[in-house]
Design goal:
Elements: H1 2-22, E1 33-38, H2 44-52, E2 68-74, E3 81-86, E4 89-93, H3 99-111, E5 122-128, E6 134-138, H4 154-166, E7 171-178, H5 187-195, E8 202-207, H6 217-224, E9 235-237, H7 243-247, H8 252-265, H9 278-317, H10 326-349, H11 358-394, H12 406-446, H13 451-466, H14 472-479
Helix pairs in contact: 1-9, 10-12, 10-14, 11-12, 12-13
The structure holds guanosine-5'-diphosphate and magnesium ion (MG).
Guanosine-5'-diphosphate binds near residues 45, 46, 210 and 242.
Pfam families: Dynamin_M, Dynamin_N
Main location: cytoplasm
GO cellular component, one term: cytoplasm
Length: about 475
């Protein structure tokens, strides 16, 4: 009964955020989330396993290689079910023992089969009667040194990925720290302190309480009572399956039972109330997440309103789209293209001026070209005189002076043509560029809102400029000479 009431109170909030996450809006709007971080082998997977009730990939090295969104949905009326989705894949399955394989398969697809990591998301939704309503994001564990075959900077890559998530104000940082290490030196807690110095949105889970050195229990008690590194959301100690229990195939349900016995018998920890056990942790996480969502809702609503306003502004600037009816659509398309053709013809005649007057621009080019021709004329006379004199001097036989061989003159003309080639090609290029620029600008202007037509006219224009014979625009202008 109490569970039902709790579910009715929390599920709608968690569902709302999950649905928003499904819409892929996280680039524009940060969503409240619990993100799990910890050093390698701190016990992250073990905690997630007991929370979700299923075995996740485990082993040495980097096991979690992509962010994994673990959506836990409590549903007492239906059998166990899971859906894993990543890229364009979505696979539904009903056997809990397959979770590990599917997660591994997804990681291989996104991050390759080696030890690489990726920032692409995998979503695993588990519906079961034994889970609490909760959504968690599991991130790769912080690695200190690269293993053989891993990129040198793997540690940096993982830290960047983690910081990306935990630096957002909307994220609750769930730091997993083993009880049997000096917690102040753990990389995960240091990173959390870096982005949340007040400890306002950090909750720490202390794992492996069964491995504490006898005599060190008081240190752990000080931590749990918030006397060492104060965190507003506090600390919870949990005991998960040790390696031996895993090797012996102790079930997760039995491990929870074992945890209860462990704490009941523990002289230092048994009176810690809601600061111990997986059960308390899961209730606390759900409550923390829902409180956090409730707190974030007004700000999210403001953000959405701002975005909406932005989008409305953009929409209002857009022209109405093409008609839906196929016949109307065709007419509409013909109209736009005809309009474009008319504008091109008008522009090429100089009837309308788009950007700058093409004829004014071209006149300047032709003037330069004319200048070039004129200069070459004086060169030509000088060159002919020089060649004729040289021939007379060196090669003349019984011809009259000045009556040289035809090939001598041909040579002179050829040399002159060679000197004119470069300026001629440059003039052609300048004029082609001018046309292309205006053509492109006109197409952009006329086909605004029709990127395909813009693209198409660009391709057609490029084709034409490489086949000058068919470059209608130039042809047209050539048949309407520009008067200098
Ligand atoms: P992760 O790398 O952070 O995901 O760490 P794992 O969950 O894979 O745990 C690393 C090792 O610590 C495994 O061998 C676990 O069995 C062991 N472990 C995790 N939690 C506990 C615990 O509470 N007690 C004991 N004794 N071992 C634990
Ligand atoms: Mg792990």
């Amino acid at each position: 009964m109490f569970q039902d009431q709790l579910r009715n109170k929390v599920r709608p909030f968690i569902d709302l955020i999950d649905e928003m996450r499904n819409l892929d809006i996280e680039n524009e709007l940060s969503l409240p989330a619990i993100v799990v971080v910890g050093d390698q082998s701190s016990g992250k997977s073990s905690v997630l396993e007991v929370l979700s009730g299923v075995s996740l990939p485990r082993g040495t090295g980097i096991v979690t290689r992509c962010p994994l969104i673990l959506r836990l949905c409590n549903d007492e009326s239906n059998a166990w079910k899971a859906v894993i989705s990543y890229s364009d894949e979505e696979i539904e399955f009903t056997e809990p023992e397959n979770v590990m394989n599917y997660v591994q398969q997804a990681q291989d697809a996104l991050a390759g089969e080696g030890d690489g990591i990726s920032d692409e998301l995998i979503t695993l939704k588990i519906t079961s009667s034994v889970v609490c309503d909760l959504t968690l994001i599991d991130l790769p564990g912080i690695a200190r040194v690269a293993m053989p075959g891993q990129p040198e900077n793997i540690g940096e890559q993982i830290k960047t990925l983690i910081l990306n998530y935990i630096s957002k104000e909307e994220t609750i940082i769930l730091v997993v720290v083993p009880c049997n290490v000096d917690i102040a030196t753990t990389e995960a807690l240091k990173m959390a302190q870096q982005v949340d110095p007040e400890g306002a949105r950090t909750l720490a889970i202390l794992t492996k309480p069964d491995l504490i050195d006898p005599g060190a229990e008081k240190i752990v008690l000080d931590i749990v009572h918030n006397r060492t590194i104060p965190l507003k959301l506090g600390y919870v100690i949990v005991k998960c399956r040790g390696q031996r229990q895993i090797d012996e195939n102790i079930s997760i349900a039995d491990a929870i039972e074992d945890e209860n016995n462990f704490f009941e018998r523990h002289i230092y920890f048994r009176s810690l109330g809601d600061k111990i056990t997986i059960n308390h942790l899961s209730t606390k996480l759900t409550k923390t997440l829902v409180d956090h969502i409730k707190k974030s809702l007004p700000k999210m609503s403001e953000n959405i309103k701002d975005h909406l306003e932005d989008v409305r502004m953009k929409i209002s600037k857009l022209k109405p789209g093409p008609p839906q009816d196929p016949a109307e659509k065709r007419r509409h398309l013909t109209q736009i293209i005809t309009l474009f053709n008319e504008k091109i013809i008008q522009m090429s005649k100089g009837d309308t001026v788009f950007q700058e007057n093409l004829f004014v621009l071209m006149r300047k080019e032709f003037k330069d070209w004319m200048e070039c021709l004129k200069n070459s004329k004086s060169n030509y006379n000088q060159e002919v005189h020089r060649v004729v004199e040289e021939f007379d001097l060196k090669h003349r036989r019984n011809e009259l002076p000045g009556f040289n061989n035809f090939s001598v003159f041909q040579n002179v003309v050829q040399n002159l043509l060679n000197t004119l080639q470069d300026p001629a090609i440059m003039t052609l290029h300048n004029i082609t560029d001018m046309f292309q620029e205006q053509f492109h600008a006109l197409s952009k202007n006329t086909f605004e809102g029709y990127p395909f037509l813009q693209q198409f006219s660009k391709i057609a224009q490029n084709y034409n400029s490489h086949n000058p014979d068919s470059f209608t625009l130039i042809l047209y202008t050539c048949s309407h000479p520009v008067h200098i």
